[in-house]
């Protein structure tokens, strides 16, 4: 549909001033976020129905997407015992690599003194502890986990 | 269809969402968190994982506006919880320390109206960002200096080594792009209201 800009009233100068000042220093949503969102879309497309609780979603090489509900807390590593999420085939993970736990109304990610560490959203953003946001990527070992918090109404 | 393409939502409104979050007082980091959370929610809705949208009774626009507003409110609440407020103490003639009485609330402010107004301004900021992408850095700097009344045409001409007519030409070109982009983005936003959830 062709646009007809001439029919629009020109914005008021005070609104333009406000818009211009808002732009000052405003970050540009970069390609990185778009690529992260592509990954989220790709995994969700093959994830089937997911529970509403906070969870981690990932795709093992050559397999369908999998998820793990966090519950009160979830330990992830190469050998976490019976309660955690064990990914024995990933040599880049420590035995107990990281933990996600509920704290107040958020979920907090903690590095359990792993050998190779963890990063959020991009490899250079290494963290020891991090309050997770819906859609955050957790990079650990050779895995990329997506943190999802479906049911959050806060 | 709009609701089948999160990429189009991102392309049209990512700048506006960031600008709105900033206008509501969030810092850059929190504004980016808002954008990520809004887009993750949109993607979930497109894969049938977002019950709030499936059950919604209004348009897709109303649903998306609700998501944006709620994410911003949520992060504002979290930021405010981190600020420790200490009451202002006063000392009277007897040397006793008194706390001021709380003031009675005035007429209820129109928060929803203010939020919508800020969103409209955020859409305008997004259109201005498109202008920035389509002209040179120097020309955009000239245009914003004029918008913010930081300099006259003559001063800008001297500063940039241009005749006043050239400055007017920059202003005219930027305004033309701005009107076109503001129209396009407003049309895109209004177009969302045609999609029934």
Account of the protein in words:
The complex is a heterodimer of chains A (154) and B (197). Chain A has 154 residues and is of the alpha+beta class. Chain A has one domain (31-148): Tumour Suppressor Smad4. Helices cover 17% and strands 29% of the residues of chain A. Chain A contains two helices and eleven strands. Chain A has helices at 13-23, 31-45; strands spanning 55-58, 66-69, 73-77, 85-86, 98-103, 106-111, 118-120, 126-127, 129-131, 137-140, 143-148. In chain A, the strands form two sheets. In chain A, strands 2-1-11-10-7-8 form a six-stranded antiparallel sheet, covered by helices on one side. By secondary structure, chain B is mainly alpha-helical. Chain B contains eight helices and two strands, in the order H-H-H-H-E-E-H-H-H-H. Chain B has helices spanning 6-23, 28-46, 51-55, 60-81, 111-134, 137-147, 153-160, 164-192; strands at 90-91, 97-98. In chain B, helix 1 (6-23) runs antiparallel to helix 2, helix 1 (6-23) packs across helix 5 and helix 2 (28-46) packs antiparallel against helix 4. At the A-B interface, helix 1 and helix 2 of A face helix 1, helix 2, helix 4, helix 5 and helix 8 of B.
Summarize the topology.
The complex is a heterodimer of chains A (154) and B (197).
Chain A: H1 13-23, H2 31-45, E1 55-58, E2 66-69, E3 73-77, E4 85-86, E5 98-103, E6 106-111, E7 118-120, E8 126-127, E9 129-131, E10 137-140, E11 143-148
Parallel strand pairs in A: 3-4
Antiparallel strand pairs in A: 1-2, 1-11, 3-5, 5-6, 6-9, 7-8, 7-10, 10-11
Chain B: H1 6-23, H2 28-46, H3 51-55, H4 60-81, E1 90-91, E2 97-98, H5 111-134, H6 137-147, H7 153-160, H8 164-192
Antiparallel strand pairs in B: 1-2
Helix pairs in contact in B: 1-2, 1-5, 2-4, 5-8, 6-8, 7-8
Summary of the model, kept short:
Chain A is α+β, with helices and mostly antiparallel strands and 154 residues long.
Estimated helix fraction of chain B? 55-70%
Order of helices and strands of chain B: HHHHEEHHHH
Number of separate helices of chain A? 2
Strand order of the largest sheet of chain B: 1-2
Order of helices and strands of chain A: HHEEEEEEEEEEE
Q: Indicate the percent of residues in helices of chain A.
A: 10-25%
């Amino acid at each position: 549909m062709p646009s007809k800009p001439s029919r629009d009233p020109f914005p008021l100068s005070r609104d333009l001033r406000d818009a211009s000042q808002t732009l000052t220093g405003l970050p540009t949503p970069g390609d990185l976020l778009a690529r992260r969102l592509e990954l989220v879309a790709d995994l969700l497309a093959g994830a089937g129905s997911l529970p509403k609780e906070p969870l981690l979603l990932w795709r093992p090489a050559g397999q369908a997407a999998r998820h793990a509900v966090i519950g009160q807390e979830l330990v992830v590593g190469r050998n976490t015992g019976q309660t955690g999420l064990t990914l024995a085939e990933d040599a880049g993970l420590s035995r107990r690599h990281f933990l996600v736990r509920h704290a107040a109304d958020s979920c907090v990610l903690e590095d359990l003194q792993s050998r190779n560490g963890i990063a959020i959203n991009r490899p250079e953003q290494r963290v020891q502890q991090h309050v997770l946001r819906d859609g955050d990527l957790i990079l650990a070992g050779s895995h990329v986990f997506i943190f999802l918090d479906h049911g959050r109404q806060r | 269809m709009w609701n089948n393409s999160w990429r189009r939502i991102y392309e049209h409104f990512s700048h506006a969402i960031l600008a709105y979050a900033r206008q509501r007082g969030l810092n850059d980091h929190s504004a980016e968190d808002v954008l990520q959370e809004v887009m993750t929610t949109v993607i979930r809705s497109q894969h049938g994982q977002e019950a709030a949208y499936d059950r919604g009774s209004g348009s897709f626009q109303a649903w998306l506006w609700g998501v944006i507003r709620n994410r911003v409110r949520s992060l504002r609440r979290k930021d405010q919880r981190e600020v420790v407020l200490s009451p202002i103490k006063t000392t009277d003639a007897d040397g006793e320390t008194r706390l001021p009485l709380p003031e009675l609330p005035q007429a209820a402010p129109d928060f929803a109206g203010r939020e919508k107004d800020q969103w409209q301004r955020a859409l305008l900021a997004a259109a201005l960002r498109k202008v920035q992408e389509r002209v040179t850095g120097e020309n955009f700097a000239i245009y914003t200096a004029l918008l913010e009344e930081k300099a006259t045409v003559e001063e800008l001409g001297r500063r940039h080594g241009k005749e006043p007519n050239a400055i007017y030409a920059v202003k005219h070109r930027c305004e033309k792009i701005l009107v076109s982009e503001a129209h396009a983005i407003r049309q895109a936003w209004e177009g969302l209201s045609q999609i029934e959830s």
